[in-house]
């Protein structure tokens, strides 16, 4: 979906259409949950602190999130998906992979199905969606970002290898900013550069994910669309430009991480029991500390108190902190059904 939360708000509140809009809390340590395309033109992005977003766009309009509405619209969209295929892997409220291999013979092609779904979504919800169509998940994800908003892009088997070869590794789905910087330091800037690196060298530098990198450089991705994939955790982390040395500063930094985790937790309607804190020190030594609760985490204050206790138990810190992370896990079976990130088809 295109700027899903923001688009729902602009649909339901016509006076907001055409305005730079952020869904989230403007005051305090608020975080942007979603930004309209008008806001994105100013550099406003999801997960950005609200104070930074306001600095980038002084006339930004904030509206509080309405997750119950987003869940209802998401259910409506998934009903549309099921008209065309039962093989659906949800990734979040607004993203999913669909395997239409068998359905394509009925409807003519995967592209025809994508066009039909986009039209059904527009007609029945008043919202727009972008689709990527290809012969594997990796390429479909890349394609889905090529014509946003309200677009469709197809990568055929004949086009796949050349498409990947030209693409900067920083734009590969599955290669984050830190890994991209490591690759660039090794002289790997594009898919073609990555293709020239041996599997053994990739393993030496990147460990167990080396085989994935080796394959996607060749436009190979054999992962199936898995409608039964179970989510094991949800979390967020931040690496800081300057090391954190004292507890009050660490508590303030962790509060920002906790805001992002809680927002995602509420969005996906999960029920977790375990809170895990991750700390990476300036010497790159990393520790994790976890606590499992008797009841599911249903209030943000419960998660925060557990996280704060874990952090305080490590103070005073042996050296500066360069990274803080927070994760919720041990989900109940009924809710442990989604997997984060990626885009339609």
Automatic annotation (TrEMBL):
Binds 2 magnesium ions per subunit. Coiled coil: none annotated. It is found in: Cytoplasm. Residues 1-176 form the UmuC domain. Its cofactor is Mg(2+). This is DNA polymerase IV. The record marks 5 as: Substrate discrimination. The active site is at 95. GO terms for molecular function: DNA-directed DNA polymerase activity. Belongs to the DNA polymerase type-Y family. It comes from Candidatus Kirkpatrickella diaphorinae.
